[in-house]
Write a structure and sequence with these properties.
Elements: H1 12-64, E1 75-76, E2 84-86, E3 95-100, E4 103-107, E5 114-115, E6 123-131, E7 141-148, E8 151-158
Antiparallel strand pairs: 1-2, 2-3, 3-4, 4-5, 6-7, 7-8
Length: about 160
């Protein structure tokens, strides 16, 4: 009687096929995880930029609220429209806004300019426009627009007594 021995195990071809299938599966998982991480980073950057822009817009809104309308020139915007100077009640000096070296700065009436945005964003083309009162009774307004990291932001604040 002859004995045949059947060895249990995989042939080299089967092992290579399993390794190839496992490699394809892992590559798909890695690409998917990378895409999710990249999308999360883009989303976080957009949220950061939006937060920075909202902070700047709130400061401009604060400056334009409570303007001293008894002053003959409560709002000064130079012809270039790149700066804003506001005479606000309760402050001895004007509140000023300007764009310097890709940063939006404010002088909150203390004589020193402070950056409103962080170094992680780049501001561009800050501009202000005075909109006079209309004949239909619409109050005067100041329109502000700027770019932060290529995202456009704009607001119009109506000046009320």
């Amino acid at each position: 009687m002859s004995k045949f021995s059947h060895e249990n195990g995989f042939t080299i071809i089967e092992v290579l096929i399993y390794i190839a299938l496992f490699s394809l599966l892992m590559a798909g998982v890695i690409v998917s995880v990378y895409s999710v991480i990249e999308a999360t980073d883009r989303s976080n950057i957009k949220v950061l930029i939006s937060d920075e822009a909202n902070f700047v817009l709130r400061k401009i809104n604060w400056a334009l609220t409570g303007i001293d309308l008894s002053n003959p020139t409560p709002i000064i915007i130079p012809p270039e429209g790149d700066e804003l100077s506001v005479d606000k009640y309760g402050l001895s000096q004007r509140v000023k806004f300007r764009l310097v070296n890709e940063n939006i700065e404010i002088d909150p009436g203390i004589g020193v300019f402070l950056a409103l945005d962080s170094d992680s964003v780049k501001a561009a083309t800050l501009s202000f426009e005075y909109i006079p009162p209309s004949a239909t009774g619409q109050p005067p307004a100041v329109k502000t627009n700027f770019y932060l990291n290529d995202f456009y932001y704009e607001t119009t604040k109506f000046i009320r007594k």
